């Protein structure tokens, strides 16, 4: 498994689908455990667990997390040792799972037809965009949906796992964050065919069934609003199917998403305000967008406004984006002042970071 958002960090350093309708209409199940239990902390941490960690070190680490007001940990791998240690300390332990971006050997070898196809006709199976591990599945294919549902149920069936955290739950970036354009020698002021997904037969047939339009016969498909809506709804449909699995297991489902509803729709076809989640974790990584710390407050405010109380928002903060502890403190305070239920930290959690979180518990 690749480390979380390796692509972004590297960039900074150098069958016919049924018509899809909005989630509010189709959803028959609602997420379990909507309210924050009394006495719980309010913050979260993204971690890639190391199985070499000693039990005593884990006990100390997670006890300190809980004391600083951290509510739970989002683990990128299924390490029972880490999950149980976190739970013993009073934290929630959730499985953080890559969803649509899948370079799994089994899938690559056995299901090349599951992969998304660009407007230029390139499959993510053998011609991945941007970087070699960008292997995006097509959300319109029933077989893909069935696979993801079965996977979610298998994860959530484990009693030591408290919830499922969805990552890469979107299409490929049709537009990269501004700070990455120079690294990939691209100017994405328009949607370029190599990065615009998905134009497979299932997506095109599903769109035609929904609208009566043949996307191949439209001169400017990137500008067709109903085609954009179809793809928003394709991802929403997948999320809400997985949410129904979580609801049956009476466990949480959350997602890491792009920083604001507008950016998410424009850049990656991600309409997260219409998802049936227990909470959302927008990645408000300000330097990726060449913004200052104060933008964390702006992005949080936009997300909270459009969610309109549907579920809580935890502002995702990227430690390398902060030059010092004072900036981190400012970012946390801005997020909380603008309505975030808490923050989620990606990066090294030092004693100074814990002190900042404890002050905002």
Please render the helix and strand layout as text.
Elements: H1 6-13, H2 23-26, E1 43-47, H3 55-67, E2 70-75, H4 80-88, E3 92-98, H5 105-110, H6 142-156, E4 163-167, H7 201-211, H8 225-249, E5 252-257, H9 261-268, E6 279-282, H10 295-307, E7 314-318, H11 325-337, E8 342-346, H12 351-359
Parallel strand pairs: 1-2, 1-8, 2-3, 3-4, 4-5, 5-6, 7-8
Task: Describe the structure concisely for a colleague.
The chain has helices at residues 6-13, 23-26, 55-67, 80-88, 105-110, 142-156, 201-211, 225-249, 261-268, 295-307, 325-337, 351-359, and strands at residues 43-47, 70-75, 92-98, 163-167, 252-257, 279-282, 314-318, 342-346. By secondary structure, the chain is of the alpha/beta class.
Describe the structure.
The chain is α/β, with parallel strands linked by helices. The chain has a domain of 252 residues: Glycosidases (TIM Barrel, Alpha-Beta Barrel). It has twelve helices and eight strands. The chain has an eight-stranded parallel sheet. Helix 11 links the parallel strand 7 and strand 8. Helix 3 packs across helix 4, helix 7 crosses helix 8 and helix 11 runs parallel beside helix 12. It is globular. About 6% of the residues have low confidence.
Biggest sheet architecture = 8 strands, parallel
- CATH evolutionary superfamily of the domain at 18-97 and 140-183 and 232-359: Glycosidases
Number of helical elements:
12
**Helicity range of the residues?**
25-40%
* Low-pLDDT residue spans: 7-29
Order of helices and strands: HHEHEHEHHEHHEHEHEHEH
What fraction of the residues are assigned to beta strands by DSSP?
Answer: 5-15%
Q: Quote the distance from N terminus to C terminus.
A: 32 Å
Rg over C-alpha atoms, rounded to the nearest angstrom:
20 Å
């Amino acid at each position: 498994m690749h480390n979380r958002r390796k692509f972004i960090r590297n960039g900074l350093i150098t069958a016919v689908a049924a018509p899809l309708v909005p989630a509010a209409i189709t959803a028959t199940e609602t997420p379990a455990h909507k309210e924050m239990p009394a006495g719980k902390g309010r913050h979260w941490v993204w971690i890639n667990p190391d199985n070499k960690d000693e039990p005593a070190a884990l006990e100390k680490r997670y006890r300190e997390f809980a004391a600083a007001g951290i509510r739970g940990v989002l683990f990128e791998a299924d390490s029972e040792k880490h999950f149980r240690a976190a739970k013993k300390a009073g934290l929630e332990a959730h499985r953080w799972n890559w969803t649509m971006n899948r370079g799994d050997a089994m899938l690559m070898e056995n299901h090349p037809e599951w992969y998304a196809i660009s407007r230029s006709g390139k499959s993510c199976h053998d011609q991945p965009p941007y970087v070699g591990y960008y292997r995006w599945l097509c959300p319109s294919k029933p077989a893909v949906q069935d696979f993801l549902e079965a996977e979610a149920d298998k994860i959530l069936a484990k009693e030591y796992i408290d919830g499922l955290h969805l990552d890469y739950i979107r299409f490929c970036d049709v537009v990269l964050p501004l700070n990455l354009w120079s690294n990939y020698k691209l100017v994405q002021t328009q949607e370029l065919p190599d990065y615009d997904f998905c134009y497979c037969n299932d997506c095109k047939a599903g769109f035609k069934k929904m609208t009566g339009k043949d996307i191949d016969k439209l001169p400017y498909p990137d500008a067709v609003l109903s085609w954009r809506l179809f793809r928003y709804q394709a991802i929403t449909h997948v999320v809400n199917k997985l949410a129904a699995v979580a609801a049956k297991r009476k466990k949480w489902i959350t997602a890491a998403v792009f920083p604001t509803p507008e950016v998410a729709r424009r850049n990656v076809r991600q309409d997260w305000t219409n998802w049936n989640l227990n909470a959302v974790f927008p990645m408000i990584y300000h330097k990726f967008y060449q913004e200052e710390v104060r933008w964390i407050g702006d992005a949080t405010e936009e997300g909270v406004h459009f969610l309109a109380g549907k579920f809580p928002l935890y502002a995702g903060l990227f430690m390398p984006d902060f030059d010092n502890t004072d900036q981190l403190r400012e970012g946390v305070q801005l997020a909380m002042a603008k309505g975030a239920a808490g923050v989620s930290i990606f990066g090294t959690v030092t004693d100074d970071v814990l002190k900042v979180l404890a002050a905002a518990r």
